[in-house]
Amino acid sequence: QVQLVESGGGLVQAGGSLRLSCVASGSIFSINDMHWYRQAPGKQRELVATITSGGSTNYVDSVKGRFTISRDNAKNTVYLQMNSLKPEDTAVYYCNAIITTHARATANYWGQGTQVTVSS
Length: 120
Hints:
Distance between the termini: 41 Å
Strand content: over 45%
Number of helices: 0
Helix content: under 10%
Number of strands: 11
């Protein structure tokens, strides 16, 4: 079994910063691309940032210059550094990754989500 567990969410004032972490655990052989998504109340889930296994990154326009995605392959961990937070960043943030297990089964995994609330 594979699990993704996020942490680091919370309540912060506008202009503040938070750092989200997502640790993958279990019988992991390899991790491909890793992503952060978010879902605000009444809205569809949105892809926020992607980091490939080689370290290339991509961001949704609304967070470019403010958010940074990174990963530590030795720790099976992906991070999302969020700076200059705005009230519109308020959402549940989800970690997502395509993972191959030691049994060579590949599947798409999601974390349980962590709440980020930005007050104005």
